[in-house]
Amino acid sequence: MSGRLPALRCTDAAAFGRVAVLMGGDTSERAVSLDSGRNVLAALRSRGVDADGVDGVPALLDALQAGRFQRVFNILHGGVGENGVLQGLLQALGVPFTGSGVLGSALTMDKIRTKQVWLSEGLPTPRYERLPKGADLRAAADRLGYPVFVKPSGEGSSVGVFRVLSEADLVPAIDFAAAYDGELLMEQMVRGDELTVGILGGIALPSIRIVPAGEWYDYHAKYIADDTQYLCPGLEGDDEADIRDLALRAFHAAACSGWGRVDVMRDRERGLQLIEINTAPGMTGHSLVPKAAAQLGCDYAELCWRVLEQTL
């Protein structure tokens, strides 16, 4: 397994033209996206790239119609930033952009359909129940068996995720489901190590094992707490090779490209289990892809450059 990234394909910042760093928007992940976007913008500028931040898709469309940008670094988390809408718009306008295309973005924004693809390819993922509006959460939990997670099928950053250890814990999830318009996923809880693998240009980066101070890796542990441990590489020897291979297979099976992050759990009995794919991963000070890239000698600014050069 190589411990190095290939040489840069481009060394001239002028080759990118003027770059829009798309961030913010109006999704539940706005705050995280703004943090990521500010960091990416500063990193690109530090390497001489002519880049400006743009908040949300309507502002981006106005700027593109005015001819202000030649390409887009998409760091708009969730919603239209990751569900294929933005990607279809940019493809129609002939504007290069970072990350996956329409199919990979739309598919992986839907956790249920992603799992269906993985299962069709024989890839391991926890048992689940699809919960349309009005579904009986208690009956679904009885079929799966406790403990379970309940989460929106189309949100990220642990938004609206409920850890349900017993029937008594279902009440908050039931209340959330009653007010939520979208589809929910109920998934068997995996007891074991929480891991993630960044993907960069067809290469699986070293895995990261996440060890939160609390009982699980929730929004607070991801973006606020400073006591979460990140062990990289997360596994050793053949186990590390296996998780990187699985992550690449899962990424490609879901029609993803460019860069992203594959979240994996290692069950004590069933081994590696795929959880989800993020096609516009966080780039904050707590984010995981930069930590993994650093293990291969790639600092934050170089990582942003490598993501952007995939648009050439």
UniProtKB/TrEMBL annotation:
GO terms for cellular component: cytosol. Mg(2+) 2 binds at residues 276, 278. Its cofactor is Mn(2+); Mg(2+). It is found in: Cytoplasm. Pathway: Cell wall biogenesis; peptidoglycan biosynthesis. It is an enzyme of class 6 (ligase). It catalyses: 2 D-alanine + ATP = D-alanyl-D-alanine + ADP + phosphate + H(+). This is D-alanine--D-alanine ligase. Mg(2+) 1 binds at residues 263, 276. GO terms for molecular function: ATP binding; D-alanine-D-alanine ligase activity; metal ion binding. Pfam families: Dala_Dala_lig_C, Dala_Dala_lig_N. Residues 115-309 form the ATP-grasp domain. It comes from Luteimonas granuli. The keyword Transmembrane does not apply.
